[in-house]
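Hi R.,

Here's the chain you asked about this morning:
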Amino acid sequence: MASVVKMTSLRNILFLLLSVVLLLMAAASCRQKNHQRPQAVIEFTDTVLDLGEVALSDTLRFSYSFTNTGDAGLLLWGVQPDCGSCTHVAYSTDTIAPGESGEIAVTFNGANKYGLGSHEFYIHVRTNTEKQYNDLLFTTYFSSL
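And the predicted structure, written out as tokens:
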């Protein structure tokens, strides 16, 4: 009778160990598959634009071009300039397919908001990429021209 109890206990222990090993293998397989899922990647042509010397009263129009170099659809979830009262942005909210390109159009008018001299302005872009936040920068030198 004692040997039957020992065999049952040994069988239970082996079953438990085998179950743990199988669970660990399944978890490792799931982690590996998650790393291989399709991902959108945004690649900007330029992230920094130097607009040079301009008159303080000038309205500037320019754009940032980008391409989805990933293998999943790219979404721009939000584009927010630091100066919302002087910088306006326009961009597509449609899904950008892999290999396709797009742009963020910018209109800037700093009249009566900034003094003469060099200034930097940021635009924050939120996407569905692994690195969700991307910063774009434009610089200019305001003069009395």
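Strands lie at 42-44, 48-55, 59-68, 76-81, 87-90, 101-109, 117-127, 133-143.

Let me know if you need anything else.
M.
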